[in-house]
């Protein structure tokens, strides 16, 4: 069964079809939520909320870009959660490692050698820290375009922004990340190890 058939069946109230849509998109939804929220527990909550909202609104979906629609719902769930946190700030102990440091956003990729795993992990962690320093609206377009590989048009649809705004924010966000990484000096040792 293709995606459009699953969507039509889910819109008709078929829970099994909706569950298949969830399975097809859960990694992308969680990935966006994790990069937007910065913590696993909050990302899990936001992803769950996004799927609940999608289930309630599936009958209103019109169009070809289901993934962009679903990621838009996810981004809105994340924004709502961040607003709620600002009103009532809390800190989760679950997101701390055994040494008290913040847990990495993603587990290290398995690689052919421990050194390549360490380099990938260091680079990913540096990029994740820079990403979390961006304003929310810039972070969203970076995650949608650079992590999820959406086209500019799909990012515009998912973020509900004009195409020119998407391009502008993406350019500024990439420049800011470059500046953050340069200013902190985090990439220099990583690049030296890669080239040395």
Helix content: over 70%
Unreliable runs: 105-112
Which percent band covers the strand fraction? under 5%
Number of strands: 0
Computed structural class: mainly alpha
Radius of gyration: 18 Å
What is the mean predicted local confidence, pLDDT?
A: 82
- Terminal Cα span: 50 Å
Largest sheet: none
Q: What spatial form do the alpha-carbon principal axes imply?
A: globular
Tally of helical segments: 9
Q: What is the string of SSEs from the N terminus onward? A: HHHHHHHHH
The gist of it:
This protein is mainly α and about 200 residues long.
Descriptive notes:
It is built from nine helices and no strands. It is mainly α.
List the defining traits of the structure above:
196 residues; mainly alpha; globular
Task: Please specify the SSE layout and strand pairing.
Layout: H1 3-11, H2 15-37, H3 40-57, H4 66-87, H5 114-132, H6 136-147, H7 152-159, H8 163-184, H9 187-195
